[in-house]
Amino acid sequence: MKLFFKMSSLRSWIICCFFNFIVASIMGLLMRFTYLFPCKGINYIYLLHSHSHVAMLGWVYMMIYVLIAQFFIPKEKSSKPIYNYLFWITEGTIIGMMVSFPIQGYALFSIVFSTLHILLSYVFCWLVWRDSKYKTTTGKLLIVSILFMVISTFGVWCLGPTINMLGKQSPFYQIAIQFFLHFQFNGWFLFAILALFLKQFEVEEKKFKIFLLLLIAATFLTVAFPINWFVKDEILKYLNIFGVLTELLSFIYLYKIVQPQINQLKTSLDSLTKMTYAFALWSLFLKLILQLLVLFPNLAEVSHQIRNWVVGFIHLTTLGIITGFLLGILLQNNLIPGKTYMLKIGIKYFFFGYILTELLLSLQGLLYYLGKGLLFGYYESIFGASIFIVAGLILVLITVLKTKTRFD
Question: Which of 7, 120, 233, 316 is geometrically suited to a Cys-Cys bond with 12, CB 3.0 to 4.6 A?
Answer without folding.
Answer: 7
